[in-house]
Design brief:
It is built from twelve helices and 25 strands. It is an alpha+beta fold. The chain has two domains: 219 residues, Pnp Oxidase, Chain A; 128 residues, UbiD C-terminal domain-like (3-Layer(aba) Sandwich).
Length: 487
């Protein structure tokens, strides 16, 4: 059987990167406040085992911070904990390009307990309230949301927020038309059919990793999880919907989504990945829960969203960077590396190039802008001598290599963008009016050396810029004597 959440928790415990909290904590803000401080201090994953109001419920444990540091992602990928993000990106990119299809099995631990629709009570699970102004308690924050295309049969495992309604039998959702499940939902709406859905908590630790990552339409995230884990995911059929879920998941919630606007219920707001509340409270689709299956003594899994970063921010830094490299490798020569700063959740990307022709930076931005409404709002391109992981070097390049704003800074106005971006006026990100997307004015910064400058012989043959007197690697003779200096 493939690795499950309990194996992962045991590994983190062995590595000393798990903190089990046995004193009583409140699901209302306290769990989230603890996790935010732990993330800020680059601390361990947290397993809460004594949660207020949850001593006699069917689920008593809550796990958070599963992949909330570079070292945890490194361990999950089988790499040393000090592996830098650039190498993590290369490894996960390599493994993602070697998908392994799942296998179907008859049963598994997730079938140890089956709760019928009439007995559903989502508040039997310790769902946190993450942020003070959240519209409710959000159960879907770090898991997999399984749906199937009614025309092609394509199975998608995404990650979309879900709020437990007060009746404890339904989940309010933000169903954005430009997302993968939003595209599927439009087909169900045309067919006048409800869309089946399954929420997967636990199982292989790469489930939420793949679910929160950008892959092409038609790609099944179960295949990606298999590649990342180097073994197939074992799947079992759901009880009430025609979907398959990991056999070793902790909890699976099955249901259907009505796409009739006359049935919509209130959802939101939620403290989003942007660091602001997003998707304001309003009437939205919801999931009617038809069944819950779970392991004995199940563990609920979650993640806190928001600035400066969370699990998803680190994951998207790697996977969105891989998406950019995949695209640029096919379209633009001379691309050496990319970096997606975690704090921006894929909205910003820095591209390092070996410049060989004029307009190269603008070609890079154009190639990226057509990929997604969620990513690459701002594209910065720099020369090969710049360390793209060093903010000081990026600012230095911006200051001293951007001379002509009219030429070096390009704005693409009125492109598709994220409906959760707080800088976008509300009337320009109304999903109903804007076709399921928001509106972005995207920015390209060409921070490479300007080839319009005339070469100066005293700077070297063909050199258009004076030699740099900083940001060069420390000479070997200095490194060899470093200890001798007393360091």
């Amino acid at each position: 059987m493939d690795k499950d959440l309990r194996d992962w928790i045991d590994q983190l415990r062995k590595e000393g990167d798990l903190k089990e909290i046995s004193c009583e904590v409140d699901w209302n803000d306290e769990i989230a406040d603890i996790e935010r401080k732990v993330l800020d201090e680059d601390g361990p994953a947290l397993l809460f085992t004594n949660i207020k109001d949850y001593r006699d419920t069917l689920c008593k444990k809550f796990f958070i911070g599963s992949l909330g540091s570079w070292r945890k992602i490194a361990w999950a990928l089988g790499l040393p904990p000090d592996t830098p993000p650039s190498e993590l990106m290369r490894e996960q990119r390599k493994l993602s390009h070697k998908p392994i299809k799942p296998v179907e099995v008859k049963t598994g631990p997730v079938k140890e307990n089956i709760i019928e629709e009439k007995d559903v009570d989502l508040f039997q699970f310790p769902v946190p309230k993450y942020h003070e102004l959240d519209g409710g308690r959000y159960i879907s924050t770090f898991n997999g949301v399984v749906t199937k295309d009614p025309e092609t049969g394509w199975v998608n495992v995404g990650l979309y927020r879900g709020m437990v309604h007060e009746d404890a039998k339904s989940i309010g959702i933000l169903l954005v038309g430009a997302s993968d499940w939003g595209k599927m939902a439009s087909k169900y709406a045309y067919l006048n059919k409800p869309m089946e859905v399954a929420y997967v908590f636990g199982g292989n630790p790469f489930i939420p990793y793949a679910a929160s990552s950008p892959y092409d339409v038609g790609v099944c995230e179960y295949d990606i999880v298999g590649g990342l884990s180097r073994q197939p995911v074992e799947l079992v059929k759901c009880e009430t919907v025609d979907l398959y879920v990991p056999a070793n998941a902790e909890i699976v919630i099955e249901g259907t989504i009505s796409l009739d606007p006359n049935t919509y219920r209130m959802e939101g707001p939620f403290g989003e990945y942007t660091g602001y509340y997003g998707g304001l409270r309003g009437l939205k689709p919801w999931v009617k829960v038809t069944c819950i299956t779970h392991r004995n003594d199940p563990i609920l899994l979650g993640s806190i969203e928001g600035h400066p970063y969370d699990d998803g921010a680190l994951i998207e830094s790697l996977t969105v960077g891989s998406l950019a490299l995949d695209r640029l490798d096919k379209t633009v020569p001379g691309v050496l590396d990319v970096w997606v700063p975690p704090v921006t959740h894929g909205a910003d990307v820095v591209v390092k190039i070996r410049k060989t022709y004029q307009g190269q930076a603008k070609q890079i931005a154009s190639a990226l802008w057509c990929l997604s409404p969620w990513f690459f709002k701002n594209v910065m391109v720099v020369d090969e001598d710049i360390d793209i992981h060093d903010p000081d070097q990026l600012l230095w390049a911006f200051t001293y290599r951007v001379w002509d704003p009219d030429e070096d800074i390009v704005v693409l106005r009125g492109s598709m963008g994220s409906i959760l971006d707080p800088s976008c006026p509300p009337h320009l990100k109304d999903a109903k009016k804007m076709g399921g997307v928001g509106r972005w004015n995207r920015l390209c910064i060409d921070a490479t050396k300007d080839w319009r400058l005339d070469p100066q012989p005293e700077w070297g043959e063909g050199a258009r810029y004076p030699p740099a007197n900083r940001y060069i690697p420390t000479p070997k003779k200095i490194l060899d004597r470093w200890k001798e200096y007393g360091f």
